């Protein structure tokens, strides 16, 4: 009925293209819900986009219809957008051509394998991010692409895509930082960075071996098997001779990508919307307001991204309070890490976490880089440094004054702990100390390093106990060895030493403020009876310990002691311990 009434009526036809007025919206509100949804389902995507931008109510309604039509109703749930490689290939394109998604505050995207798809996915994700106003957390994962790039030789087509992808990904990160986003996580990407780095090595090789000064590396053309010509191919050949095509013009690499399957179709409605002009798609803030950045690999510090990442961190200096860095490969050289840690100035940083892989032959993040960085950031409250350390290649920065006055949590190699807890540093807010043995291949931590770190902890507590102005804060002492064998050996060394000398637990008995002892190990092993009694004998030397925490234990296995029985055995040897926690769960009994 409505279509026949508007048929031939130009004024009525024009009214369909005009924005909805308040009276029109009121008329639509008055319709029954079933009828309203039926009308929305008859509209195309462009019309649904226009209606969804008129009001918040229509945004919710049109969003539901749009996602259900494109079979993406499970992609957006509770304000979180989760797109993985199992999702539809057109998911990002559909969302880009959609509308402002209401209540979207978190995006988690796993890039689909294939370097040639990187550009398209990045541009789609960039367009989606620019259209949002309330996204506070963005997680980007390259794990699937890493699996694809393992052992893969560089190809010329991938090189073209890589050259175009790097600036596109920089734009994406820049727009994320400028759109009120608070948390950014870039996970994995080590193999992708290695794959991109192979192109640079290939160019250097060609430049060094080419007498003309270097030429671009082109793919090797291999002769394929001769195919038998069919009548169809013969007809195509005749047609090509009768109707020759126009010669193609030369295009640059950036222009040629628009004709491939990696090109992005320009959304038709973006330039036609009156309620959302073109300026609305630009970053709303030139100053990033990031509060937490996680670099889950060395990709963001690779040569192509290094200066951009450093500039992004420095631009977020006034708001950034948490920085997590994970080094899993030798993609970044030693000089790169030195430049990174010595150039950053983050005055409001309170949490720093640095992790290095145990698989590297030589640790690349040296203590002199880290300690210099720590000494220049007095705002730090949490310091976690996890990774191997070679004492023979390690030197520590020696500050002239006290550092880290706000430090509350320190987890690192015993050498780091000894450096942090020297007599010059008062550390009045210290609450937790975690000793990480960090055994690496042939580099095992000698027992005296662990004991020296404990001695520094004891001296720190002695100073605070004697000072009437600074009340002693109960400390949590954590001990983590790479293997249980080394942990047991360290336990036995203390027990044997104290039994032979009969001078008490020496440094252990000086740790009078230790209220909680946390035992951890790098590998998951079964909770065995002999290790349990060895641990209890060790804990008996702590005079005021009240809680025992066992981390990374394979609990709930057949043959293990019951939780209640385990707690009774602990209290029988250490009556002061009233709380036993295994893998975060407190035992009852």
UniProtKB/TrEMBL annotation:
This is F-box domain-containing protein. Signal peptide: none annotated. SUPFAM superfamilies: F-box domain. Residues 269-283 have a biased composition (Basic and acidic residues). Residues 12-21, 249-263 have a biased composition (Polar residues). Residues 1-21, 245-285 are annotated as: Disordered. It holds the Pfam family F-box-like. Residues 25-71 form the F-box domain. Coiled coil: none annotated. Gene3D superfamilies: 1.20.1280.50. PROSITE patterns: FBOX.
